[in-house]
Amino acid sequence: HLNMGIAEAAYAETVSKFNNVDAPIDAAMRQWKQGLTVLKQAPDSLLKAMLHTNMTWGMLQMINEQEYLTRAKEFGRDALATYKALDTKEDLGRTLGLLATISHQTGEAVTAQGLFASALDAHGDSVLDKIARRETLLRYADLCRAWEKREREAELLQFLREIAVGRH
User: Can you give 38-91 as a three-state secondary structure string?
Assistant: First the structure.
C-alpha cells in the first residue's frame, strides 16, 4: 500500500504536468489509508510512520481541501509519535521537513526554522533521504526568502540544494 500510494501520487503528478490539469491524489491517499488499516495489528512499525508521513505530504498537496493543514499536521504528529516509539531516525528527516513546511504555512516561522534544522540533521545517506534533503533545503530557502533580512541565507540554501542535485 505504501508503494502503490506513491505510484498513484506519481501518476497524478504526471497527468497534471502533461495535461495541464489538477489531477487529484485521492487514489494515493486511499492506498495509504488502507495500509494503515492493515497495520492496525502492529502498534508501532516503520511502515506505519512512513504511511503517516506520506499522508502528511498528500494533505499538503490538497490545498483546496478544508482544514488541509490541520489534517496534515495530525498525520505528521502521528508519524513523529511512531518514530519516537521506535527510536529510529530512518525517514525521520522527511517527516520533520514536512512539519516545518506546515509551520511555515501557518505563520510559525521560528518553529519552522527549528524543524527545518532538525530535519537536515536527521537525514541519512540513503537515496530517499537525499531526495528528502533536497526538498527540505528548497522549502527552508522558501522560509528564509519570506523572512525579513534572510535572503542571503535563502541563496545559500538554494546553492546547497543545487549541489545536492548535481547542478554545480
Answer: HHHHCCCCHHHHHHHHHHHHHHHHCCCCCCHHHHHHHHHHHHHHHHHHHCCCCC
